[in-house]
Amino acid sequence: xxxxxxxxxxxxxxxxxxxxxxxxxxxxxxxxxxxxxxxxxxxxxxxxxxxxxxxxxxxxxxxxxxxxxxxxxxxxxxxxxxxxxxxxxxxxxxxxxxxxxxxxxxxxxxxxxxxxxxxxxxxxxxxxxxxxxxxxxxxxxxxxxxxxxxxxxxxxxxxxxxxxxxxxxxxxxxxxxxxxxxxxxxxxxxxxxxxxxxxxxxxxxxxxxxxxxxxxxxxxxxxxxxxxxxxxxxxxxxxxxxxxxxxxxxxxxxxxxxxxxxxxxxxxxxxxxxxxxxxxxxxxxxxxxxxxxxxxxxxxxxxxxxxxxxxxxxxxxxxxxxxxxxxxxxxxxxxxxxxxxxxxxxxxxxxxxxxxxxxxxxxxxxxxxxxxxxxxxxxxxxxxxxxxxxxxxxxxxxxxxxxxxxxxxxxxxxxxxxxxxxxxxxxxxxxxxxxxxxxxxxxxxxxxxxxxxxxxxxxxxxx
Length: 463
Ligand code: MLC
Hints:
Elements: H1 3-11, E1 18-22, E2 25-28, H2 29-45, E3 53-57, H3 62-74, E4 77-80, H4 87-97, E5 101-104, H5 108-112, E6 130-136, E7 144-149, H6 150-163, E8 171-174, H7 181-194, E9 197-200, H8 206-216, E10 220-223, H9 225-231, H10 236-245, E11 248-251, H11 258-268, E12 273-278, E13 282-286, E14 300-301, E15 306-310, E16 313-317, E17 324-325, H12 329-335, E18 336-337, E19 340-349, E20 355-360, E21 365-367, E22 370-372, H13 374-383, E23 387-397, E24 401-410, H14 417-427, E25 436-439
Parallel strand pairs: 1-9, 3-4, 3-5, 8-9, 8-10, 10-11, 11-12, 24-25
Antiparallel strand pairs: 1-2, 6-7, 7-17, 12-13, 13-14, 15-16, 16-19, 18-19, 19-20, 21-22, 23-24
């Protein structure tokens, strides 16, 4: 079954029900369906064939939803691009994925403006057909595109509906960006498959969050830990009201500190349900909806998912796991061991089966739920003429979990740090910009010359 067939199970019964609220307007499932069909016609008129790629760099809104659904119908592979990415980051994705078209804020209107395109011929697709290529850097080499199939997304969504009891009666507030799998794989799919009403925000804005919650009165909310930290500022009476309407808060994409879970519980009267996923796998492990939600643990493998720990590393199998990286056979071979996906995350399992993540094999910073690969920033810094050596490491941050800090050895001569930061801002998304640049006489290295990041002064309170 393809995703179009799966969504039709929900759409067919609910043509006139309100599906979506966005910027004060409402849309029925019938509207969403009709818009997706129209967009599919427009893409077909642009010559799109099954297997072609469509790269999309758009903020949350009707267009990105419609484009995804149109791609799914046509067998076109959707390639989401982070809206915060700058030219350097985008051009790698575009040259690697070779999309037939790259849609962004400046050309999206003209794409959809086609009036009477002939009805697109819908191909007969198999559930194994690729639905999306999601770029994820990994700790080695340039960003790679994880190929996710219709079946991967379907397995994920069916699991979440069953395990988190999501139904048409839910009211779902989605503030996460649809260019990542958290909002795309979980948010959009749970919404469409359950047939619930979703209020979509362009993004999570701290100052407006309380008002949005009170106005919409959601029963379901997905967030990253940074969002839950921000929500701890909610006035107690508002938090009580929000909590009384809410059924389930879910957290993922980064570790949720146990003290945040506890403070949140006291304020909102809800124990956040923490789960674990990745771009390559969608969701793997989740605390139970009914049952103990254990602080610091990501819970139990979801139905169909097998987990094992080999030399401390968590490895997974299941219908949600991607088939490989786009045009990178070696990277794909390296990512699997006997058919098990090697997550790169270190884990422990308790005697009653709860998994706890306890570190990573490779070098990765997660800031506000966005992944940062230090190597990408280090390579850029090393390209700068004044920089002899550079290392980037994550330092703890109470709101974002971690933030990147750059440690640099400067070549003889002078370095204008403000100018170096400006160059970084021009090259990278805002969340990747080092919060501090620390000049070092030398970087700590081992006998093989590898930088010993744990020996760097990992604190923001550096003099
Ligand atoms: C953040 N910014 C955005 C943005 N999110 N800009 C546009 N659209 C968005 N969606 C920018 C801001 O402009 C600002 O830039 C900076 O990021 C910080 O913003 P802030 O207002 O201070 O936000 P803050 O309260 O800190 O909250 C940030 C956040 C954001 C939590 C809303 O980090 C976020 O949306 N994170 C979610 C990431 C996500 O969905 N990850 C899932 C990956 S999938 P400037 O220039 O002012 O600094 C995955 C698999 C899995 O990991 O398991 O789910």
